[in-house]
Amino acid sequence: MTASPSVSPLSAAARSDGARHVGGMSFREDDSIRPLVDYSKLSADGTGASKIRAAHQVYEHLVSLWAPAIIEAAHDLGFFAELATGPRSVDDVATARTTDRRATRVMLDALYAYGLVTKSQDGREHRYALPEAYREALLPGGLFSLVGKIAHDRNVAWSAWSNLARTVRRGTRDESGDDRANGISETDYEDLVTGINFWAPPIVDVLASTLTENGWKAGEPVSLLDVGCGTGLYGQLLLERFPHWRARGIDAPRIVPLADAQAARLGVQDRFSGVVRDIWQGGWGEDADLILLNNMIHLQTEESGQKLLQAAANALSGDGLVCIADQVVIPDEEAPQSRFAMLFAASMLATGGGDAHSLATCDRWLAAAGLERAAVLDAPMHKIVLARRIGQSGFPAA
Ligand SMILES: C[S@@+](CC[C@H](N)C(=O)[O-])C[C@H]1O[C@@H](n2cnc3c(N)ncnc32)[C@H](O)[C@@H]1O
After folding, report:
1. pLDDT given at position 18
2. b/e 47-70 (16+ beta carbons within 10 angstroms → b)
3. CATH superfamily entry for domain 186-389
4. How many whole angstroms from 372 Cα to the centroid of ligand 1?
5. Of 158, 251, 329, 356, which one is least surrounded by beta carbons within 10 A?
6. What's the CA-to-centroid distance between 319 and ligand 1, angstroms?
């Protein structure tokens, strides 16, 4: 496994061949998922033109369901592992994975249609292969593997989404009528946290460069606290960049060993310690210079979000910073991060509670905790809100 946390979207270069090259791999220049409708073939006028266009668009949304079904079945069947060993014919794959030959051909062509496998002619048969670029995402064990996300879909998401209408009728309130925070189980988090590691590098890139550009403690000893750390990757990547920093990651008993193991894998185990603790039971310590609340506020209700920010304020050093990287809805609701956040809110709803909170809500929580927003940064699928104590001038450095 080659971890490449330093590959940033900023290093992606569009070249004259129309492809975007990232880390030696070729991607579509606009990075879009391959379109399934050729809208140029639809008439702009004539009877029902707008209705027919709209029907194509709705249908295109509806068939998005096919993608996880096909990708996850291919994972379950071991197709990706098989194709990773080299170009394979339909017969090769069907024999190795004991699957039906025709059905295997349909699946391999479907994966090819999504651009996830290559297909080449070899004499009278086709050979399919898993491109290098997708190995880390589709095979288990890599730092940025999505296999945990697939397991989460299998165990939680599929049934949750199929019950969405019922959830919307009832809402996510408990017996006493209070709104519920998201509460998937610790075992479900074991899958999920590894499957969202890929979010961390671009967030750490922009966070680290903003802190450095603003003269914030790059060369000083910093005590970092990662609350609900998951695998701990955010803190660990920051430790790689800032050799004087130390990090503690708080999480549940089944999750902390994952974080400790990953710290060892990245070679920062001497400065990273995982701590088993229920975040609502205190014990965050005090005088943390940088507190990460990454992908934590979308799990919260209005009330628990406020409690989380107050706990962060209580544990923060005088000139410390709180970093919230999350699905925060900003006033520009057309921004990709806002649109993703609004869909993410539906995902939280489907799985039992939580929300994508607005920047205004974050500001309210911060103010009530004696904190104020110092910066809002962009990551591909997140907003990053940096906050300091009200009136504290440590960031940006004077
Ligand atoms: C959505 S994950 C985010 C993980 C990590 N911060 C990240 O961004 O990849 C939420 C994390 O919070 C942890 N968590 C949730 N409730 C917790 C609690 N009461 N005490 C400790 N950890 C908790 C979960 O175990 C999980 O690792």
Report:
1. 66
2. eeeeeeeeeeeeeeeeeeeeebeb
3. Vaccinia Virus protein VP39 (3.40.50.150)
4. 24
5. 158
6. 25
